[in-house]
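Before relying on records like the one below, remember that each one covers exactly one chain. Contacts with other chains, cofactors or solvent are not represented anywhere in the record.
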Amino acid sequence: MYSNQLLGQIQSIPGVMRSSIPELGQAVHAALDPDFARSLERIFVCGCGDSHHAALTSELAFETLAGIPTQAMTSMHFARYTAQNLPQQSPANTLVIGISVSGEVARTIEALQLGRAAGASTLALTSSPTSRLAAAAQYTLRIPAPAVTPSSDLPVPGSVTYVLNQLVLFRLGIVLGQNRGVLTQHQASEFRGELEGAADTAQRTIQSCSKIAGRMAESWLDENEYVFTGAGPNFGTALFSAAKLLEASGDFALGQDLEEWAHLQYFARIPATPTFVICSGGRDLSRAVEIIQAARGIGRQVAAVTSLDVVDMAGGADFWLPMPDEIPEIFSSLITYLPGALFAAYRAELLGEPYFRDFGGGRNPEEGGGLSRIQTSRMLEDFDS
């Protein structure tokens, strides 16, 4: 069954994390010169789809660990609306990181090309060191592409590379922080230990949330709209979770900033829309409690992805998907996406839906969508020539 493939991939993630961390650590240390790291004044992180969601999870980590102002944005926004406005005094002290596993996503290639043309330093995160993205960058950091079990010829909504991208970005933040003197050797070692322990935390999360996600899928079988909310690094989690549901079951799913929910979703006409509130228990805590209370007050069906304390403080939720307390907020996105991915897998199975609509109705698997031209989209320079 289709969903067994997605569940199998999710269950493989802790093992992939454990086996990949040593290689990632070596690659990150070799990627950037320490003198260059000390000169950095600003970072932009860009990507499309899951890569953009991973970029969003990295802002807080870079700013906290490395002390560098950082902005995550879509590749299109950076390429066509930001690159030409980079600071002119010291553009080389700006680092533009472009994320694409294939290394062939047109918009992200364009972002690095235009960033480099503006004088910025550029770094490609990709599994393909011979790709166009790598060629567009001054520096390349290779993301491993491990085999995912169970293997299948069918495309499966991806989670593994999303996690690996985050691990690379977080390790890069630690290295930059140590090179810049923001982190002591001891502090850097402690943060590396947190990342190494995240695999065990992910495994416990899968074990504690899997049956609950299955019950949610059964309870909400007749629903066809879903909202995922999160703040800070978990805004990326909300977007990623919504993306997995769209890819797996084809349902309308919206990822939204936690605060923005109160400004918009609070007034929706359909009151019972299932709503996921994703909370790390850190800076988002007080607002997540209020949003859970508000959502329940207007009749929303609420799934709380958080610690038990948050659910108790909010007066309950329809479903509670327990998150461990030991992972810090800056790394919480390595774990908090798991309940949404599990829910997507179970819902697709119950509905009998093929992933990606089986590429029917004018869709095809070429470059991620055929007519959408993810890889062959015209570059901005093509219009100027």
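DSSP finds 15 helices and ten strands in the chain.
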